[in-house]
Amino acid sequence: MEAPSNITIKGILGLLTANTDGCKKVISLGMGDPTAYSCFRTTRTAQNAVVEALQSANFNGYSPTVGLPQTRKAIAEYLSKDLPYTLHSDDVYITAGCTQAIETTLSILTRPGANILLPRPGFPIYGLCAAFRHLEARYFDLLPHNQWEVDLKALQGLADHNTVAMVIINPGNPCGNVYTYRHLKEIAETAKRLGIVVIADEVYGHLAFGADPFVAMGVFGSVAPVITLGSLSKRWLVPGWRLGWLVTSDPHGKSPKFMERLKKYCDINGGPATFIQAAVPAIVGETQQAFFTKTNNLLKQTSEICYWKIKEMDCISCPSKPQGSMAFMVKLNVSLLKDISDDIDFCFKLAKEESVILLPGAAVGLKNWLRITFAVEPSSLDEALQRVNSFCQRHSCN
């Protein structure tokens, strides 16, 4: 059997980095890992919680495959703050990061002939996981000039009796959008009409700094069944800790068959390190709001730098200002550039000439667009964008 050929973000970023010439310091605006910069550091509370759990010697053994009871309880309480109802420990399954939560969810939903609706642009791991599970991926468009909202009319045209779920990512990766309450309600009502599950990827939950606050998709759990995926990685700035979760809610009661499949899959899939799980109650319960406010203010500052620097570049445009997450999409007009054929060519030549790494839009499903990560120290971000501007001017047709 051959592995699915879907491109991965890490794969293409590795190729781009290898293409730099070493004459300048490499600045990556491609990978969504803010921990490379000292201004993005987790809290001492989180660090101490992990150290205490490890040094206690109480968490050196296996955890239950669905997660430690205290970890599940802490995540249920944390997420319930955003909901009109209370989640219970049994609704929560602890995973090795959100990637494992994605793989688990798609694996238990698939069946012969099934298909799933995925956003374009979107996070390519969904397509890759679907391909491995022989789950047909059907892509619906997000509308760039309408704050990247879902094209719900087109989405409904993609669905049929074999559609099992649709995926939404909010706050948006790679688009930097934050969906309104109204639009999320429309998504839930559409899912109800189609009789499908909403998989809500909320890895960037609460990383919202624009006009619209973050609203959890689970708010609409009384309208349609929702599976919420999340992790500590982005909000607590600890992607390497690999602590994620999968949370179920269903207005009609959870399917016994679904729950049985979920528990069995956890038995064979393994979870995150036990001592990291044990630290979660203190991490989510004791982190001060000031830490989150500081992170959001910094992300707002760096997103503004990106937005206004892009305004200075003739060949790149931004259809909507970033409102959340850590990255956003900008459109590349290759007709204004000489000897640049498309977004992939642009990114490889940029890496070679300026040692700046951007992610070509083709990697997330949108040709001749670029994804720019702004979770970067402001001075490094400013320097990187100056280099991008110089590159664009050097390759300009004018």
From TrEMBL:
GO molecular function ontology, one term from the record: pyridoxal phosphate binding
Modification type N6-(pyridoxal phosphate)lysine: residues: 234
Domain of life of the organism encoding this protein: Eukaryota
One annotated GO biological process: L-tyrosine catabolic process
Cofactor: pyridoxal 5'-phosphate
Pfam families for the chain: Aminotran_1_2 (PF00155)
Zinc among keywords: no
The entry's keywords: Aminotransferase, Pyridoxal phosphate, Transferase
Family (UniProt): Belongs to the class-I pyridoxal-phosphate-dependent aminotransferase family.
The protein's name: Aminotransferase class I/classII large domain-containing protein
Species for this entry: Salvia splendens
Lineage: Eukaryota, Viridiplantae, Streptophyta, Embryophyta, Tracheophyta
